[in-house]
Amino acid sequence: MAGYARTPTFEETFAWRDDLDKRISDYFVKHPEIAVSPQARQFRVERRVALGMTREEVTLLAGRPDSTTAETAAMETAAKQFWPQVRERAKEMWAYPNGWALYFDGDRLVDMTVAGKPRIE
Fold first, then answer.
1. Are 102 and 112 in contact (CB under 8 A)?
2. What residue ranges do the domains of the chain occupy?
3. Per-residue pLDDT reduced to its tens digit, 56-73
């Protein structure tokens, strides 16, 4: 939407969902242990990022971030009032459109914030 300044057409949305389904299927082929785990629901049904996911899983579902940083000051600015809870584990932040910030400790997603929204538990 940001690139075209309009909402996607039905065909574009269908193509995007079809591509996501294929990427999820390919991921399950490479990681069969996840395909049969409770976590598979996050991919198949909910199609959303969840705490504890790896960087690879986040990228699969959310795409590449607009930017990344390991600078404490930038992470604190993005997390705003939630920084006291976020800083305990956040070593790197991935920024996405619409104020989404995802925080990683090593390879695992440990927290998420959205500018102007309550903290996601």
1. yes
2. 1-47, 51-121
3. 999 988 889 999 999 999
